[in-house]
Amino acid sequence: MSAVRLIHRIVSALFAVMAVVLVLFFASKAFRSVPEVEGVNYGWGDVVESVPEATEPAEYADVDYTEAGEEMLGEFVADNGFVASTGVQMLVGLLGLGLMYTALARRESGRWALLHLLAMSGVVIFAFWLFGFNVAYPGDFMFGGLLPAGPVGPLMDDLAEDPFSYGMSFTIWTDFFYQSLYAVLAGALVLSLCAGRYRTPTIMLASIVVAAFGFPLTTSWLWGGGWLSSIDARDFAGSAMVHLLAGGAAFALVVLARVCPPAGPGFHPLPGSRRAITGVWKFSNMELALYLVGALLFLVLIVGVNAGSVLSNDAPVVAAVLNSTVCAVGGGALTAGLVSLVLAARPRVVILVIGALSGWAAVCAPADSIDAGQALLLGAVAGGLGASLLYAMDRLGMDDPFGVVAISFVGGGVGMISLGVFADDATVIAQLLAAGSISSMGVALGGSIGLIAWLARVLCEPPEMELPDVTVPSGQPSGEAGSI
């Protein structure tokens, strides 16, 4: 093992340990940041009834929690715990994502997939605490809502003495915990390219840049009150904020790896140098089991992302969001299976999963605005387009081992546009502007990192030579056959 590789693995292990420590620390603050007052159960409750004129959450900060009713304060705890628990669900889903990467990766990179995912998570969560959260929600903007006004620093606020002062149905640390995992998810989707021919340092750097810098800035545009918010663009659960950002970065890296390989123009991957999930590579039973276990765990993340985006434990709304999510996931799997049946003569399990995830990426934006039938149609369109793009990219020699371009770039774009079609309070023009600007940010960040890496000749690993099968003649010692 070279000294550089050894140092890389030691640093990755240290960042992985940091990820575990930070997750435990901020999760404990999310669940325990509500103050204790003797004889009172905390909760959000009927704040609107307490403040009849209030129309925005920020106005709820005027509520005196010490004088609030027991039911009101009790429901605050329920909402706070619900949002924090959806963050825990996202953590479980990220573990499933790591298992899926391990199943799809080549043997060398697969052994380190979970370690790299943990290491990236540690860096991103720390960066989100250091500056990301206050970049995403700065309060004041300059240049027409493009950039935060003034310098931003680490999140130091502790509003436990007055939970309503944050103006939401949960505390500031719960919001931080939940939002930081959104950033980690965006980086994790970019990190999926580690399962292909790409060198880990390149993809690690790209995923960290996208999650730690791109996600907070674009979040400020749409969720933080920036310029996209001013034109009434919407994104309920991250079709743009997570999927288009990560999908744009992945798309740029995939294209660069194809047109700018280390061997120079005209380079074509040899057979066996990559694992094309559309049919070139056959799963072993163990790999298939690992992939399906990871997909089931990732389903927990899907539930957590969309249910938690309600930002309260309002059961009817949560149920409606989950209903549309399930319908979109089912529709995406159905049409992806049909595309696989037409193009490959049989439905492949991996294609079905990618179609289902494309449906999820599409429904994230309009999950609170569409009914079951519309969600089924939306998922079917996203799943069919995503599966078709996957086969087309494979024919063109583009290596996207997890299918993140098909899932996030296509699914996220379809979802943002559909919101402008289905919702009465959103326009197609505003949704297109939001989708275009956020995906362009992803393409710019991923493309710049990939181009720098290519110039340094570290973007891709050289193709693996596949030796021909040698038939050992009868009576010849096997050790002599094919020896050089």
Automatic annotation (TrEMBL):
It is a multi-pass membrane protein. GO terms for cellular component: membrane. It is found in: Membrane. Residues 86-456 form the Ammonium transporter AmtB-like domain. GO terms for molecular function: ammonium channel activity. One of its GO terms (biological process) is ammonium homeostasis. The chain crosses the membrane at residues 7-27, 82-101, 113-137, 176-196, 203-224, 236-257, 288-311, 317-342, 349-368, 374-392, 404-423, 429-456. InterPro entries: Ammonium/urea_transptr, NH4_transpt_AmtB-like_dom. Its main location: membrane. The keyword Membrane applies. Keywords: Membrane, Transmembrane, Transmembrane helix. It holds the Pfam family Ammonium_transp. This is Ammonium transporter. It comes from Haloferula rosea.
